[in-house]
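Structure in, sequence out. Go:
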């Protein structure tokens, strides 16, 4: 489907575990899914302005932009937003579930991603929670989470897709903050 429908761009048919002679957190096609990468574009949450976190009225000044370093340091008990390297176009008969990779989970770094609904497309906004009392490092252009694809039976395709509903995150291109 990735090659036939342009579902994942860029698409890596195998699994990459070494880059520039160094071991990395793997990305690409896995046994039952696809390991996505994090782009070098982050928004790190800060409580500098002492605002209330309100999903209906989110203060964009609660973030510090970080890019071009190849990594991001997340403060203790804080979080960062990022986006995938890959652009997704989900077919109408597919739903995805995305789970963080064990390498990060074993370090107390939780990767949170909502499902990619049928006919959603865009770069995926990723949320990294640092649950530890120490700073945590996230690497750009390496694997961070695995996408699992669930295909509907031919007679059970969704009646109303994300595109049909005019979903507010359709076609997102950068690290996308909450919208109402």
């Amino acid at each position: 489907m990735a090659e036939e429908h342009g579902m994942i761009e860029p698409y890596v048919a195998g699994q990459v575990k070494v880059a520039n002679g160094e071991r990395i957190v793997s990305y690409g096609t896995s046994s039952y899914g696809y390991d996505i990468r994090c782009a070098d574009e982050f928004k790190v949450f800060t409580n500098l302005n002492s605002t209330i976190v309100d999903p209906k009225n989110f203060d964009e000044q609660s973030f510090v932009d970080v890019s071009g370093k190849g990594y991001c340091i997340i403060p203790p008990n804080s979080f960062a937003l990022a986006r995938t390297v890959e652009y997704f176009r989900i077919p109408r008969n597919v739903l995805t579930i995305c789970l963080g990779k064990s390498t990060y989970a074993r370090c107390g770094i939780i990767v949170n991603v909502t499902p990619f609904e049928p006919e959603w497309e865009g770069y995926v906004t990723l949320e990294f929670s640092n649950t530890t009392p120490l700073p945590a490092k996230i690497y750009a252009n390496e694997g961070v989470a695995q996408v699992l694809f669930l295909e509907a039976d031919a007679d059970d395709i969704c009646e109303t897709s994300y595109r049909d509903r005019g979903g507010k995150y359709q076609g997102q291109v950068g690290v996308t903050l909450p919208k109402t």
